[in-house]
Structure formats: structure tokens, C-alpha cells
Amino acid sequence: MTEATDPARGTAVGPVPVVNAANALTGLRLALVPVFVVLVVVSAMTHPGWRIAACLTFAVASATDLVDGWIARRFALVTSFGKVADPIADKALTGAALLLLSFYDRIPWWVTVLILVREFGVTLIRFWVIRHGVIAASRGGKLKTALQIVAIVWYLWPVPAQLEWVGPWIMGGAVVVTVLTGLDYVLRAFRLRRRIR
Length: 197
What we know:
CATH class: Mainly Alpha
Shape: globular
Strand content: 5-15%
Number of domains: 1
Oligomer: single chain
Low-confidence stretches: none
Strand order of the largest sheet: 2-1-3
Distance between the termini: 30 Å
Order of helices and strands: EEHHEHHHH
CATH topology: Four Helix Bundle (Hemerythrin (Met), subunit A)
């Protein structure tokens, strides 16, 4: 058992089991990361069938992120485990996808490095303020996540050659929003810490 947290106030609302629907989906997302990696490696980004399988695995894993967050907030199941495991699962999935896409020369390495620095930096800041409250995802943060998912899915799927030009535009939008929302998150974290003090 662990203490559930009211996401609006960041205060305990009572004991709930660690094994609940939201945490189970987070665990599923973590379990799908190695499956996704194996599928991409087997495909070598050249075999359409394996690429489609990898893309669908990534899409399913990404969908669990949306669902587990909604369940945790809707039913007051925001646990200490979830607050730690959820961002780790997110970064593991997105990080693995970006690293593999750069390794197979689908996206430039600087894009992967920039996004990962932002993502892991925000995760560290989240742990820095976790005792004082949860910084809710902003609309910009949700747009960032959506753009990253769409961009990665686009690069994973074996799109026709004449449509390959679309991918860099989607990823470019994801990079811009990723950087801007990262700066916004840093400012909100410092405001939260200052308010607590």
C-alpha cells in the first residue's frame, strides 16, 4: 500500500494499492520498451514488415502514457511510485526511439541530443520539486508530446519516398515546442520552490 495523492493539491488522500490500473499501464509501457528496441534492430529500418511492427508497438506504448495519466488523475491514484516510474517509462521509450532513429540515419544526432537533454533535464527538475507538489502538464507540454510521438511514428512507418519530406517538418515543430516548453517548465519549477519557501 502507498499513499494516493490529490493531483490538484499534491496532498495525501488515503492509502491505495501500488498495483492499480494506472501503475499497471506504466509497467506495461516499460515492458514494451525492450520489445520495441528488438523490433527496430531486427528491421534495421529497411524491412517494412518489422518497421510496421515496431511502429505499432511504439504507438501502443505511447497510448498507455495518455491513459495511465488520465486514470491516475480521475481516480486519485497519483502514487509516489507512479510519479517516479511514469517519467522514467516516458523517457525510456522516447529516448530509445530517438537514439535508434539517429543510429539508422533517419534523424540528425543533434536533434536527438537536444530533445534528450531537455527531457532528462525536466525529469531531474521534477524529482527536485516532487516533495512540494506535481507540476501539471501544460497545453504546450501535451503538444510537445503529441508532436514527438507523431514525428517518431512517421519515421518508423515505411512511408512512400515521395512523402519523406514531411518527416523533417514534423520533427522540426517537435524540436521547437520541446525547447520552449522545457524553458517554461524550468520557470514553473522555480516559482513552485519559491512559493513553498
